[in-house]
Amino acid sequence: MSLENDPCHNHLLAALSEEERKRVFPDLELIEMPLGDTLYSPDHLIKHVYFPTTAIVSLLHVMESGASAEIAVVGKEGIVGISLFMGGETTSSWAVVQSAGYAYRLSGQRLKNEFFRAETLQRLLLRYTQALMTQMAQTAVCNRHHTVDQQLCRWLLLSLDRLPSNELTMTQELIANMLGVRREGVTEAAGHLQRDGLIRYVRGKITVLDRKGLEQRVCECYRVVKKETDRLMGGHPTL
Amino acid sequence: MSLENDPCHNHLLAALSEEERKRVFPDLELIEMPLGDTLYSPDHLIKHVYFPTTAIVSLLHVMESGASAEIAVVGKEGIVGISLFMGGETTSSWAVVQSAGYAYRLSGQRLKNEFFRAETLQRLLLRYTQALMTQMAQTAVCNRHHTVDQQLCRWLLLSLDRLPSNELTMTQELIANMLGVRREGVTEAAGHLQRDGLIRYVRGKITVLDRKGLEQRVCECYRVVKKETDRLMGGHPTL
DNA sequence: ATCCGTATGTACGGTTTCGTACAAATGATG
DNA sequence: CATCATTTGTACGAAACCGTACATACGGAT
């Protein structure tokens, strides 16, 4: 995976025009992203944006009590650091590497220069931002109305869509932090999925055995986000 | 209120440059917005954007089951229909008038033309969009971690910030739809607030008696959104 | 092979919210 | 004033989730 790295493994970079690639690609830096790395945190000025290829990044909010909740997830279909071109420069959320891997990094200034040329990149980034908003909105709805079992299915599928294999390195404790529930709640939900043969997990490794089964059990939230993302991000399959 | 209407009652319109106003204001239409009016719904092409002055609009998601949840609220500080300039043209949410009033309407094409001139309006709209994302993210977190009591406080304050008076026309049933909880849950929570002298309500009219009291009881979510909105929308107080 | 830190499993009472049912109060209408 | 639809109040068991405590299981290190 790390052997054959190519900016085009990120779907946004892959969709740029020839001229934009000529301008942008030379300035991209390949960055290794270890699990748990913090790309940015509230009130910290963002200096770079990240285009993940194999890594997955969680955007999460942490409350005064220490409780947390994931509000969106970004993988090879997206970009981390949208507040740079949106104009805020910082956000009230954290960006944390949820699954180790690689990303291409670009300086914030370079990105802004490209963005305000108003060519393909701008159109892509704005549409991607709308897709991200759909994900956040659906997360809010899911938090309100669905069970931990359903949310775990959703979370697994969202991760799976951004990974090359059907195996993810993730403890139940970490999943609990993402979903904003107790670790025991995840143990129980995961137990149900394992009992029914949909997944298998051993000490921080989860293997998805029956993706179709997960899709049957997941709440509508997953489908809504996927459908809208596909629509917004155009003909090319985004995930 | 309807006697002295002026586009500048909307904060985004008020913040435009002199030249932009000259171009845009002649094309604004003052629109009366009755309670419950639907401005757009999923998969319906959006033809106009709305700049509320006295009206308040809820962005809400409705699930297959019919259950709903508000994901953000837009008043005189914002604009309804951002998917127009974001590029999606439609959204997966509804925009419903939560509090009757007025808004200025602009054709989608006119807005897009202005947006892509990349002047003040673009900067404003992008930053506003980021503020909206903060609101959505915080709604997700609040749905996960806070009680109905706290969420009702948040909702009341968000509404209050967008209204001219301390009285809102709203049944508990409708609030329940917004918060995505049972009507009885709102009855109970509102009962607590009334018992403690923070509000008074009679059949669809809620009067806020003690705003400070609400602010003391509300969860951090309200403050986070307000602070971030103020930061993003610049020196001028946005609410 | 044993030890030890980490990860997962299980259990129990408490709280919040849900679903449902029905009663009471309000305000508009005739 | 009487009627009626709407809004609000109350009650009760069920379900989901929480907080806590503790047991078990795995896997790397000595």
Automatic annotation (TrEMBL), chains A, B:
InterPro entries: cNMP-bd_dom, cNMP-bd_dom_sf, Env_Response_Regulators, HTH_CRP, RmlC-like_jellyroll, WH-like_DNA-bd_sf, WH_DNA-bd_sf. The keyword Cell membrane does not apply. Keywords: DNA-binding, Transcription, Transcription regulation. The keyword Transcription regulation applies. One of its GO terms (molecular function) is DNA binding. One of its GO terms (cellular component) is cytosol. Residues 146-212 form the HTH crp-type domain. PANTHER family: CRP FAMILY TRANSCRIPTIONAL REGULATORY PROTEIN, HTH-TYPE TRANSCRIPTIONAL REGULATOR ARCR. This is HTH crp-type domain-containing protein. It comes from Methylophaga muralis.
